[in-house]
């Protein structure tokens, strides 16, 4: 697989995760958003909700989605494309929960997430959809030769 397909799949994935999270918010599900959490890595709390903070948050979600796409690509290249959708779910959730459960806790990023079960369920749902779509796109684009 080439880097362009990984990069584009990562951007598509970020749009999907952020879009699904926004949809959950509109449906009344009280959840922290990926862009808030990502911007909190770089900014003090009052700046998270500013236009600059939101843009930084979106850039952070794009970077994490590209990393997820790269991980899925490596797994598919190493193990083959059978059950790509399932491998995508496993890889996206593994990386997501390593971030949520390990790195965020160690670095004290968005500590209130441990008191927000809805956020964790939304993350599980969004990461599963992300993994499926990224794996399917990577599988499809791996067959295209340039």
Automatic annotation (TrEMBL):
The keyword Membrane applies. Keywords: Membrane, Transmembrane, Transmembrane helix. The chain crosses the membrane at residues 7-29, 49-72, 84-106, 118-138. It comes from the Bacteria. This is Uncharacterized protein.
